[in-house]
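Why does this matter for the project? Reviewers at the last site visit asked to see concrete outputs rather than summary tables. In response, this paragraph embeds two records directly. Each consists of the residue sequence and, immediately after it, the corresponding structure tokens. Nothing has been edited or filtered.
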Amino acid sequence: MSAVHNARMKITLKLFATLTDYLPHEARRANQIDIEVDPDASVQQIIDPYGMPPKLVHLVLVNGKYLSPEERLSAHLQPGDVLAIWPPIAGG
């Protein structure tokens, strides 16, 4: 296997509101963490290992652009992208 297949890229993962509990303890105050991901991973494949209940993964933004649940299955990130996830916001 060539080194190209093992290349990882760095992105920023931001989790908001109750989702910050899914970040490593040291990252919770800042509500974000820089992570290395496989460039071939879909947005959903990046989200899945964090174990967030799907019903809490409500609003997913990449660099401020909304991704629908269907787009998350096929969308890929670029180095330096910011993946932000919000739970449903209660209120009215």
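We now turn to the second protein, recorded in exactly the same manner.
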Amino acid sequence: MTTPKVSDIAGIINKIAPFAFAEEWDNVGLQVGDPAAPAERIMVALDPIPEAIDAAISAKCSLLLTHHPLIFRPLNKLSLSDPQSALIARAIRHDLAVVSLHTNYDIASGGLNDLLAERLGVQDCVPLKVTGGDDLVKLAVFVPRDHAERVHDALVPFSRFIGNYSDCSFRALGTGTFKPLPGAEPFVGTVGTREYVEEARLEVLLRRGETGAAVNAMLKAHPYEEPAFDLYPLLNKGEERGLGRAGRLATPMTLGEFAAIVKDQLALPAVRVVGDPSRQVKKVALCGGSGASLMKDACFKGADVLVTGDIKYHDAREAEAAGLALVDAGHFATEHLMVRGLVKRLEKELADRGLAAEVIACESENEPFIYL
């Protein structure tokens, strides 16, 4: 097992929730620290607050992963009289790197909003507001029949799912011809002689952004000195991605009953509700954190209720007028579940890569609001 570097962990995060998915106004990725430093212990927290920084330092962590960015707006100066600057300096003094994954993790498949939907029993989810989608590329490579499975296995980690199906490819047999020229070191055949080889044409579907990595993996697995392959840009649209989620409940219920489930599943003392508690709800929209800006999208999707946090008075009045119920479960509670979710996901990703690092959840974070 190999100890990963901070850059290795950032690379894994970029695979889980590509930094390119983040909204333009956001600031994600490495906030402070040395990308070449070893990351033997990693802590995950929602906020880069003093309690989380201190907890990571006390636990002898070299990397802190946070949802909210440590540096959100450009800094004009670093003065230790400023609380944020002092926090940045404290992290640097203790060799603590900080990497943030914010709206990119909100948007990513399997990210925060999917974790929230799963927790609340919301099924068949699609993005509430589409912000982008995958451009697709088809890779076709010609490989000796006996080596086709090896090359296929090298490409599987990059191949796109088609619906609920993985490991998708097409394979057809044919005859390949080539003549090795002087200086060649052919896997099959003799220099100066035309060869006829039974080959398989192997096709897989890729995201455009992963084409380079997929080709490199294919070249490493391919037995030929100079493999023949083609890349085709496609007009097919890939999976849509976006903010929030819209889905359905397995069984319709009243707004009051659903609000009770939200309260129980997020371990809250109370939730704020807009709408008649006796009305029936089945279609649910949700957005962890502050999602009031997505109310119109929720209405467009035909949602009966939107679950989010930070609902303002005029948001509530607007929802009433639109006939949309609201459940305000707070910013903290609708996002804090990302901590355990990311710990679990990162542990799996590290194990799959043969990397040895301990990943722990920050236990010192609390909801800033209290109920009296």
